[in-house]
Write a structure and sequence with these properties.
263 residues, alpha/beta, TIM Barrel, eight-stranded parallel beta barrel, 12 helices, 8 strands, globular, binds phosphoenolpyruvate
Length: 263
């Protein structure tokens, strides 16, 4: 637990179910080249499983890291259509997204499953990007913190302080993902502050201070600066805007600019 706040930005691009291998290699190459102009930001590309090898080939000698969008909690076995932490690691990933709202809402992923996946990822040395967020209905009916609190407690259940310190949290309000609606910097900071306090109460202040908490939900070059300027926002999980190298890199640069102001 040595990370000092404010953290330099971590900016991860979730490519979701997009791109051919040729398009992926091109985008990865443009991103890796452009990353030289954003020194100090950690950039992570998160392609679909089938594109991991193609992207790995392109970024392997660059500082750009690789992540997977999901994984199963078992190491191997009769789980048709699934991939394990070992496979994801073998493909060159350092990160894995777990509990993304699209997995929770479209594919019925439960808090218990996210918890098992988080433990399996940590067991194999992967860094989980553990997503949590409220729906619009939950926000409108004043249940945002109740929902986040229960996802937080259930997702991290059974982890000790040392393990929690290795988890990256990603606050992604469901109503902001892929909708063009972004949480205001104040709304995002309110939740990030809540998550950091929750970490502190449960795991102690050093763990809370070193935790990396990302914001995700329609992050674009024109809102990245004001979001990152908030005290408890350490980076972004970016969907749509990561599919173009220019916008993804500009988000990283805006975050770096805001980071300088925070120091
Ligand atoms: C996401 O996929 O995690 C995401 C935040 O998507 P978008 O940036 O498109 O809202």
């Amino acid at each position: 637990m040595t990370n000092k706040r404010p953290h330099p930005p971590l900016v991860a691009g979730n490519w979701k179910m997009h791109l051919s291998s040729e398009e992926a290699a091109r985008l990865a190459s443009q991103t890796a080249k452009g990353a030289l102009d954003a020194p100090g930001a950690e950039l992570v590309l998160i392609p679909p499983f089938t594109l991991l090898h193609a992207v790995k080939r392109v970024v392997s000698d660059t500082p750009v890291q690789l992540g997977a969008q999901n994984m199963h909690w078992e190491d191997k076995g009769a789980y048709t259509g699934e991939v394990s932490a070992l496979m994801v690691k073998d493909a060159g990933c350092r990160y894995v997204v777990l509990g993304h709202s699209e997995r929770r809402h479209l594919f019925g992923e439960t808090d218990a499953a996210v918890n098992k996946k988080t433990k399996a990822a940590l067991r194999h040395g992967l860094t989980p990007i553990f997503c949590l967020g409220e729906t619009l209905e939950e926000r409108d009916t004043g249940r945002t913190f109740e929902r986040l609190g229960s996802q937080f407690a259930a997702g991290l259940e059974g982890l000790d302080v040392g393990s929690v310190a290795k988890v990256v949290l990603a606050y992604e309000p469901v109503w902001a993902i892929g909708t063009g609606k972004t949480a205001s910097p104040q709304q995002a900071q309110e939740v990030h502050g809540f998550l950091r306090r929750s970490l502190s109460e449960r795991y102690g202040k050093p763990a809370a201070d070193c935790a990396i908490i990302l914001y995700g939900g329609s992050v674009k070059p024109d809102n990245a600066f004001s979001l990152f300027r908030e005290k408890d926002i350490d980076g972004f999980l970016v969907g749509g805007a990561s599919l173009e190298a220019a916008s993804f890199l500009q988000i990283a640069k805006e975050a770096l600019r805001a980071h300088k102001e925070k120091r």
